[in-house]
């Protein structure tokens, strides 16, 4: 008869402090936020996000520099128009970084490992969306802050009114970040290959904007400006801009926005529906991946 031997290879039971679910959730959020800017990853992963962040800063810095020389208030960009004006750069940032947060774990089939720890499927989704939202908010809000601070330093006229506009613009920045992150994360989560994910996110924003512009052009050629405004709600940047214009008293940056207070309320409701709907879709997506 053969004999068996038990070898003691040094494994010991962990008796230390267990930080629990909140710590895991916070760690996942911080890790994902760092990953969005390539921090903690190879140098090549940092190139694109930091180049795009620098490009986002250039109009703000240039605008303040020109105003410092000319003292013409018109050269300063409006806070609320910053995101719509630079929407191409924001969309590229989202397209390149959303797959890093949403599809990398799916591609390498490591999602079940996350759920072996005290973190739920909803916690995982919320941490990911919060990280992408924070990254986009920083991308948009930092240049807007540079505009505000630069205007104060160079003594822009009516500086007492600037604080209210700046705070309203920050609300708009947060809404832009939340809506865009929700859309980008859903698209990226269903395209596990990163290259396809980048192309898919870009395609969603390009197609929606192009179709809306076509419909608005036809509506305006028929002098139906009301229809043109409502059509704008189906392009993400126009949708959030409508909220800024109708509910935050900003000047419009889109071709047309939905009319009146009703337009603002409908636009805000659509933003909420996009965010909650995206959370539900991502929950089902990662829950299915966690069970496989």
TrEMBL record:
<protein>
    <submittedName>
        <fullName>ABC transporter permease</fullName>
    </submittedName>
</protein>
<keyword id="KW-0472">Membrane</keyword>
<keyword id="KW-1133">Transmembrane helix</keyword>
<feature type="transmembrane region" description="Helical">
    <location>
        <begin position="263"/>
        <end position="283"/>
    </location>
</feature>
<feature type="transmembrane region" description="Helical">
    <location>
        <begin position="82"/>
        <end position="103"/>
    </location>
</feature>
<keyword id="KW-0812">Transmembrane</keyword>
<feature type="transmembrane region" description="Helical">
    <location>
        <begin position="197"/>
        <end position="219"/>
    </location>
</feature>
<feature type="transmembrane region" description="Helical">
    <location>
        <begin position="50"/>
        <end position="70"/>
    </location>
</feature>
<feature type="transmembrane region" description="Helical">
    <location>
        <begin position="166"/>
        <end position="190"/>
    </location>
</feature>
<feature type="transmembrane region" description="Helical">
    <location>
        <begin position="124"/>
        <end position="146"/>
    </location>
</feature>
């Amino acid at each position: 008869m053969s004999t068996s031997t038990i070898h003691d290879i040094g494994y010991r039971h962990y008796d230390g402090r267990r930080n629990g679910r909140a710590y895991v959730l916070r760690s996942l959020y911080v890790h994902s936020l760092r990953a969005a800017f390539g921090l903690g990853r190879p140098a090549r992963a940092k190139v694109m996000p930091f180049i795009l962040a620098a490009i986002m800063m250039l109009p703000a810095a240039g605008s303040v520099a020109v105003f410092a020389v000319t003292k013409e208030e018109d050269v300063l960009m409006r806070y609320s128009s910053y995101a719509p004006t630079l929407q191409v750069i924001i969309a590229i940032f989202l397209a390149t970084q959303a797959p890093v947060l949403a599809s990398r774990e799916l591609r390498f089939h490591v999602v079940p490992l996350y759920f072996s720890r005290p973190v739920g499927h909803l916690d995982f989704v919320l941490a990911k969306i919060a990280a992408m939202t924070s990254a986009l908010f920083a991308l948009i809000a930092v240049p807007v802050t540079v505009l505000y601070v630069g205007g104060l330093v160079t003594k822009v006229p009516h500086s007492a009114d600037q604080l209210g506009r700046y705070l309203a613009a920050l609300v708009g920045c947060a809404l832009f970040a939340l809506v865009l992150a929700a859309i980008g994360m859903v698209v990226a989560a269903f395209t596990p290959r990163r290259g396809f994910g980048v192309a898919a996110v870009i395609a969603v924003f390009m197609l929606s904007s192009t179709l809306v512009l076509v419909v608005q052009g036809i509506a305006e050629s028929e002098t139906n400006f009301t229809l043109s405004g409502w059509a704008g709600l189906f392009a993400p940047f126009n949708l959030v801009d409508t909220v800024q214009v109708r509910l935050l008293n900003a000047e419009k940056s889109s071709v047309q926005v939905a009319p009146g207070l009703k337009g603002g309320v409908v636009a805000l409701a659509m933003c909420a529906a996009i965010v909650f709907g995206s959370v539900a879709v991502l929950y089902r997506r990662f829950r299915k991946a966690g069970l496989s």
